[in-house]
UniProtKB/TrEMBL annotation:
Its EC number is 3.1.6.14. It comes from Scophthalmus maximus. GO terms for biological process: glycosaminoglycan metabolic process. Its main location: other. The modification 3-oxoalanine (Cys) is found at residue 98. GO terms for molecular function: glycosaminoglycan binding; metal ion binding; N-acetylglucosamine-6-sulfatase activity. This is N-acetylglucosamine-6-sulfatase. InterPro entries: Alkaline_phosphatase_core_sf, GlcNAc_6-SO4ase, Sulfatase_CS, Sulfatase_N. Its cofactor is Ca(2+). Belongs to the sulfatase family. The gene is gnsb. Keywords: Calcium, Glycoprotein, Hydrolase, Lysosome, Metal-binding, Signal.
Length: 529
């Protein structure tokens, strides 16, 4: 009943009011009062899942890892969301690349069901087919049917707003207020679609710094909202994505910070699939300088996101909505800086790229909880819809609500013991002119011509994680049908591929499970044995 708390509290306030008025007139019989009370309580129970549920705010960072200390600079966020609620230490994206991951967040679907394969229009990123299909029944559409007022600001999907993706006039259904970035993350010199109209920005910090603009517009939305409706805000800052442009006041922070040198940092990927056997090992100094600089600047850009979270929490407090609002903080994918000698990027199957931060506060969530159960980015939509009172059996999602994990007083919920991670590699049909020694088919070859992706960096994994097992089994769609297997209990940094050591019966069982997961839809994604 907690998510409808606002309503129930209103009901009880009405009871108290009725009592005062009745007593004012005298002769109020205790019996009438208790009947009234019972009726109102019954209504509270009956209407659970009905009107006036809690508000929801979803903050989605771009490329923020959790594995390499990505949350360390965000002290206020950790206090205001994590300490005030739940921190999920095993949160994962089902695909470690922006556009497919964001499409999963918005729909609750695995990539094989929303069919957004990469960051290009031809791979369905914000494509006309995505708009006609998955986007037309995404999260905000349901929330708007639940009478939520909805607000979006920031980066949406990498191809959003481009000519072939319907231009800035395309406003995805379900959004009442729309302030979306055209294209990929930028901090200055960008274009927004403001409710379907083009708005150009240059590079004045006071007027244009995108993270601050998102914060400011969300506060204004909260001031202007109509209090009869619950609200949903999705805030999607560019940080800590490249080009890592920090606000002027933060450009000198973390001067001594370097990328962490432990775990798989600069380790050779010797028994891994072919792409991981290419990096120069040990890394040249130029790569180290490049990645340390990226690491430091990423942290600097996050300080503005930390300020945004603080402003938002203060505003919710001042309008007296904080206690009736769920705030989710997460990222679309992880990131790496030097792991297995790969300079910088995401796109890999390893923990640093697939783990994401996830902090949630809100009604019914006890403070300071650290939760171990694995949860996925495809669970965000069902969880938010659960909070909003939507009957989940009527919704087409592959994920499941984790409201019960963080607020057991509100819902039952059991954790899933394993899940799918799937990725389609990006490549370039021609050789990169900056790296003439490399063949075609590769991409993201910088610095020092070390490539982070290729067409056949296409893989699917079963990640098993419960009290007994902590395993990863991955198959590549390359000419070797390469397999990687890790026991993360004994080898948390995935240094040793144990495919040749494990019982073939176990490999076969994992392969069977993977095949089922790769074609699962809805219930069958949650019920595989
Ligand atoms: C959470 O834990 C921290 C550190 O132990 C403590 O300072 C804080 O008061 C706790 N917060 C709540 C809301 O219980
Ligand atoms: C794009 O999505 C549509 C369905 O929305 C699907 O038919 C098509 O095959 C997808 N394209 C790719 C390249 O996966
Ligand atoms: C923004 O664009 C202007 C004009 O092209 C350019 O001079 C400036 O350096 C750019 N600023 C940033 C931060 O990229
Ligand atoms: C955001 O609002 C603050 C406070 O009003 C203002 O100082 C700042 O310039 C604004 N920034 C942007 C980018 O709108
Ligand atoms: C790389 O940097 C290290 C330490 O900063 C230095 O000792 C070494 O000589 C450098 N190597 C090259 C090839 O510049
Ligand atoms: C994205 O996916 C489409 C469809 O599979 C493919 O044609 C295109 O080459 C991919 N883009 C990149 C950069 O790999």
């Amino acid at each position: 009943m907690e998510p409808e708390q606002g309503r129930c509290r209103g009901g009880l306030r009405a009871v108290a009011g009725a009592r005062t008025r009745r007593q004012g007139r005298g002769r109020a019989s205790a019996r009438t009062l208790s009947t009234l009370l019972l009726l109102l309580l019954a209504c509270c129970v009956r209407c659970a899942g009905g009107a006036q549920p809690s508000n929801v705010v979803l903050i989605l960072a771009d490329d923020q890892d959790v594995h390499l200390g990505g949350m360390t600079p965000m002290k206020k966020t950790k206090t205001l969301i994590g300490d005030a609620g739940a921190t999920f230490v095993n949160a994962y994206t089902v695909t470690p690349l922006c556009c497919p991951s964001r499409s999963s967040i918005l729909t609750g679907l695995y990539p094989h069901n929303h069919e957004v394969r990469n960051n290009s229009l031809s791979g369905n990123c914000s494509s006309p087919l995505w708009q006609k299909g998955p986007e037309s029944e995404a999260l905000p559409v349901y929330l708007s049917k639940q009478k939520y007022q909805t607000f979006f600001a920031g980066k949406y999907l990498n191809q959003y707003g481009k000519k072939d993706a319907g231009d800035v006039s395309h406003i995805p259904p379900g959004w009442d207020q729309w302030h979306a970035l055209v294209g990929n993350s930028q901090y200055y010199n960008y274009t927004l679609s403001v409710n379907g109209k083009e708005e150009k920005h240059t590079d004045s910090y006071e007027k244009d710094y995108l993270t601050d603009l998102i914060a400011n517009r969300s506060l204004k939305f909260l001031d202007d909202r109509s209090p009869q409706h619950p609200f949903f805000l999705m805030l999607s800052p560019p940080a800590p994505h490249s080009p890592w442009t920090a606000a002027p006041q933060y450009q000198n922070d973390f001067g001594d910070v370097k990328a962490p040198r432990d775990g798989s940092f600069d380790k050779p990927g010797k028994d891994k699939h072919w792409l991981l056997r290419q990096p120069i090992n040990p890394m040249p100094n130029s790569s180290l300088t490049f990645l340390d600089n990226a690491y430091r600047k990423r942290w600097q850009t996050l300080l503005s996101v930390d300020d945004m979270v603080e402003m938002l929490v203060k505003k919710l407090e001042s309008i007296k909505e904080l206690d009736n609002t769920y705030i989710f903080y997460t990222s679309d994918n992880g990131y790496h800086t030097g792991q297995f000698s790969l300079p910088i990027d995401k796109r890999q199957l390893y923990e640093f790229d697939i783990r994401i931060p996830l902090l949630v506060r809100g009604p019914g969530i006890k403070p300071n909880q650290t939760l171990q159960a694995p949860v996925l980015n495809i669970d965000l939509t069902p969880t938010i819809l659960d909070i909003s009172g939507v009957n989940l059996s009527s919704v087409n999602v592959d994920g499941q609500s984790f409201l019960g994990q963080m607020a057991p007083s509100l819902r039952n919920g059991s954790a899933r013991p394993f899940f799918l991670v799937e990725y389609t590699g990006e490549g370039h049909p021609t050789t990169d002119p900056a790296c003439p020694k490399l063949g075609p088919g590769l991409s993201q070859c910088f610095p020092d011509c070390v490539c982070e992706d290729a067409y056949n960096n296409t893989y699917a994994c079963v990640r098993t994680l419960d009290s007994e097992n902590n395993l990863q089994y991955c198959e590549f769609a390359d000419s070797e049908s390469f397999v990687e297997v890790y026991n993360l209990s004994s080898d948390p940094h995935q240094l040793e591929n144990i495919v040749k050591k494990v019982d073939p019966a176990l490999l076969q069982a994992m392969n069977q499970r993977l095949i089922k997961l790769q074609s699962c839809v809805g219930d069958s994604c949650r019920d595989i044995k």
